[in-house]
Amino acid sequence: MASATGSMSKADRASRWPVRWRGLRGRVMAAFVLGAGLVALVLAGSVYGISTSYMESQRVRSIERAVNIHAELLRLRLDDPALSGDEAIAELALPTGTIAMLHRGSTWSIADADDGITAAPPVVDPTVAVPQAATRVELAGVPYLRVWAPVDDTAVLYEFAPVQELDSTLAMLRTILLACAALSVTVAAAVGAWAADRALSPLRQVSATASRIASGEQDLRLAHSTDEDLSTTVNSFNAMVDALQRRIERERRLVSDLSHELRTPLTTLTTSATVLAGHREELSQRPRAALDLLVEETSYLRGLLDDMLALARAEAGIHRSEPAPLSLAELLGHLLSSRDSAPGLLDVRDEGMVRGRRMELERALVNLLANADRHGGGLVGARVEREGAEIRVIIDDAGPGVAVADRTRIFERFVTASRATAGTGIGLALVAETVAGHHGTLSCTDRPGGGARFTMSIPAMADFCHTIAN
């Protein structure tokens, strides 16, 4: 048996990409992206919060140590009565950008490590004699940390340390963390796409194999898998296909047996009725009426058997010939000529070249023409035309038409639109099955001007192979 191990082509996968986003593939990728996004958000927030708290606390402690040291130095220098506050604070070695203010008595002394900064500090309460926690303030639009410490009973030292560099560092850290989070989400999306592709690959293989089996490659099977999780599915699928194939083979044998077993007695019965009909004039009236009924019923039974066997063969996929190029216009013209139809009934607008089985299509056209005569009040027109990639055969009749509710039902078995007309009820079902076997469609509509219109559409020969491949 053949095995299906190949995957879909890149073009097929690209054409189905938008659809797959809305299916299982999209949900797998969404789960990866959401999970990675949540983890990245929690990690980035935690790292940023911890880093901000640690760096700010370190900065505050360093400033507090510096202001306490400077306050102690000022206390020693201010013990000299001849030294003013401005002279004492000017001798402090301040870090770059730091502003120091000494409040002594009712006067302020200011020392600025950068000569360019001359902004006045905010108003502070000089009556507080205990150290206060660092407070963020702005001087000329620049962020500072304000820390102060007592020098003695009459003096307080204030220092304003710039934190612009700290804020820049934190901003850079925030940008890096956001970039890392975005990168992790992108990587998660790529990993999710890869994981979804790997996870769905067996399903795509099963789908492709099932489509090929349905198109006629009944010997095709899935290749054996060493994966414990997939082997059960593969084995079950192959077992199901084997069971279906055995069932189809049994049906084929049944059709063959029925064809052989029923045709022989029916042929004998028909022959006997024909022989008796040759001596019809020798019979009295009542045996003659019985003979007419026998001939009529045997003819009906023979037509019913032929239609049932043909329908069973079509449903079981039993074909007496292989598809070959043929002209629907020529085939329809030949059938109309054999019926002695008027030449003007046929309207050929396209040669109607298709690739099909001649005997099956001929039977389908015969059934459509017979349906027009038997149920539609007679054939009034037949047309062959091309519509896009399809060849259409249109059969018009002069009957009362088909009710909208019955336009689909009449293609089922043993269904007729009118009970007053004779028929097996299988002819249109056989036509529908034959057209479906040629990858075509069959429909019933109203004919302009009254009556019914049956339209049989079959892919043109140039598009036939492409239709089967899809």
TrEMBL record:
EC number(s) reported in the record: 2.7.13.3
Annotated compartments: Cell membrane
Coiled-coil ranges (or none): 234-261
Record's keyword annotation contains Zinc: no
Main location: membrane
Segments traversing the membrane: 176-196
Keyword field: ATP-binding, Coiled coil, Kinase, Membrane, Nucleotide-binding, Phosphoprotein, Transferase, Transmembrane, Transmembrane helix, Two-component regulatory system
Residue ranges of domain HAMP in the record: 197-249
Top enzyme class: transferase
GO molecular function: ATP binding
Entries under InterPro entries matching the protein: HAMP_dom (IPR003660), HATPase_C_sf (IPR036890), HATPase_dom (IPR003594), His_kinase_dom (IPR005467), HisK_dim/P_dom (IPR003661), HisK_dim/P_sf (IPR036097), Sig_transdc_His_kin-like_C (IPR004358), TCS_sensor_his_kinase (IPR050428)
Residue span(s) of domain Histidine kinase: 257-462
Reaction catalysed by this enzyme: ATP + protein L-histidine = ADP + protein N-phospho-L-histidine
Protein name as catalogued: histidine kinase
Species annotation: Nocardia rhizosphaerae
Classification lineage: Bacteria, Bacillati, Actinomycetota, Actinomycetes, Mycobacteriales
